[in-house]
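ugh finaly. both done.
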Amino acid sequence: MLLVYTHKLTPRLTYTFKHFFTRILQIQVDFTTKVEDFIAHDGLKLTYGKQPLGNEIFIKSTNLLFEQGINDVDVNMGKWSGVECFFQTRQEASIPFDVFAATFYLLSRYEEYLPHRKDEHERYPAEESLAFKHQFLHKPLIDIWAYKFKDILLEKFPETELKQRSFEFISTIDVDIAYCFKHKGVIRTFAGYFRDLSRFRLLDLWYRTMVIFGFTKDPFDTFEELISFQKQYGIKTTFFFSVGGYTTFDKNTSSRNSSYQSLIKSVADYAQVGLHPSYFSSKDESILQKEKLRLESIVNRPIEKSRQHYLRFDLPETYQNLVNLEINEDYTMGYAGHYGFRASTCTPFYFYDLEYEIQTPLKVFPFAVMDGTLKDYLKLPNKKSFEIIIDLANQVKKVDGTFITLFHNDTLSNRYRWRRWRKIYIDMFKKLSPLT
């Protein structure tokens, strides 16, 4: 156990230290404000404050973990043994910056509460972030700091034996549109035929007809393959189904369609299933609640996982709504426009509500890369896309973290813009499978 001495215990401080030490480094941590208890402790120990008490590990604190609310924060970047850092401290200390204040700043998404420019979907864009501006978005920086800090601990306490966590890969699939041609309803089906005819897409017209009359499989119906890959390669896969109403941004099959309901039930028999809340749910708890209840009635079990459609969420409102509805895991933490680590960590963490200054029960699973980011936003060729995915996975492997990808069921269709992306998905599984 690591004992931390500090002059004042705050929710921010305990939240940050537990993520840094307990979740990343697998070290149990306790706290004291009593000098005599700290001196009497003969195990791992650390002082976090303005002055060291002796020759223990000492981190000079800044004010962030002892404050409340949102304030203007000056961030000046520096380097620590070649790694980006900020909240630098001048006084002699074990490391030259307040690593815990920096961790909290990134983990709590403090910068997203500050005034910023939103994108066309009212999302916080990567370009506004510290990580993008200073080119460390592709690194799980908090985990890197923690592993470098572990070396300092082992050097100071060489007899200590620390547990080692292991790399984990989670594949997640968003089901925005379950079927390309089937189960669209009469009006949408005729509109599709008219669109194909008006654009002289005769091959699509023929293919649509073959699918609708059951002569060939719908190209977006890749669910059996996805589930078989999960078993074949030993990689956990989670599916997020949308069950909202039809809007400009939500165009899935109706949740009342019996075939769509059967699909959801069959997938839920073999894989984990979560909610993919609709576009307008990010600011409306009533919509979120309605869709959660709808999906629960289909699978006949509580729904505890969620990822917002279009990755559209506002802090703290969207996450507060998820907490209110007893959704325990969110997978939205990532950017649409850029790959990388939005919260600068590859370790699942709990949402800290800066409005109420509390750690909530909502566990956030940050993803590192989305198929649409590479293909549509960055317009990268397939080979480069695959290289980026593996490079990100290797970054996570270095710190034994959790690597999470976001793909869609239609990505494996090999049609239209997704030509040869099925191979990318399979090659990714082959490369990262624990069974090979």
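ok and the 2nd:
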Amino acid sequence: MNIDIPEGKDPVAYVWGEMVPEIGIPASKFSRSVYANSTLDLREFEAARLRIAQINGCIVCMDWRTERDGQKVEDDFFESVENWRTTDAFGDRVRLAAEYAERYALDHHNLDDEFWARMSARYSQAEIVELSMCLGSWIAFGRLNHVLGLDTVCALPGS
């Protein structure tokens, strides 16, 4: 852990709720809303989320699998996300979600007209905004947890 946590305090609750409550509590509500209110298909959601987790290096995020209505992605989905360019496990929208996640996190200045034409052909404007907000949440909060060392003790919403 890269910050001091008082004896007997839950590290995640302390950091997200007590240290900076005016920021941490609304941030945790935003993070929860991404999971609770996303309209994206589970495979698209998980492809984007897992690609960000891989980039961030967040331990709990890489191990987590979002569940919706009793459904989760298959066990080898993580490896497919790592190999999103070449896997035959993904259709166009899932592959594009993984690509967008990677480019959003690592190369956002080079999201060119060709990329946006492909996105707009497969995702509605509302879905693009929703996915962008999800990506921003995962980048910010996954990195925060990893950098502060919370990713070995935190749990994502619904766990």
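summary for the 2nd one i guess: The first helix runs from residue 11 to 19.
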